[in-house]
Every structure is written in structure tokens, then in C-alpha cells.
User: Fold this.
Amino acid sequence: MTTIAMDSVESSQIHSIGHDAETQTLAIRFKKGDAPAALYHYSNVTGEDFAAFKGAESIGSHFYKNIKPFKDKYPYVRVDESQAA
Assistant:
């Protein structure tokens, strides 16, 4: 599994995000309360998709409107439950 550098974001539900352009993989670590929680990798996320996501006024809203509902376009795997490195 690819290790992707993560950046913390301002969001009530998302702790941090990262992107690997070579594999077109989006990494999202969610929050449980204020603590980092499960890490997911989403496939087929282009650099343009990631730029729109990272630059969105609300990262959480963007995710829940433009990525999560499209499981066929952006299939995902749960990577782990552990806290961010």
C-alpha cells in the first residue's frame, strides 16, 4: 500500500488529506471527536480533482457532495484505524 504524505485540514469531520499523483490515490483520515481516526484511500482521483477538493471552501461538504456518493468512480479501501503518523 502506498504511503501518502498527509496535511491537516480545517474540518469538523476530516483530520487530514493527501494525494499521490502517480497512483491517483486520495488519502483521507477522518476524525473521531477531535482525534484522528480511520484512514481511507480513494482511487481514480486526478490532480485536478484533488486541487478542487483541497481548495474547497468546505472540505467536508466537497467530500460528501463530490466524492463519497460516487463509489463506482472513486472506489475506496479502509487502510487502518490507527492515529496519524
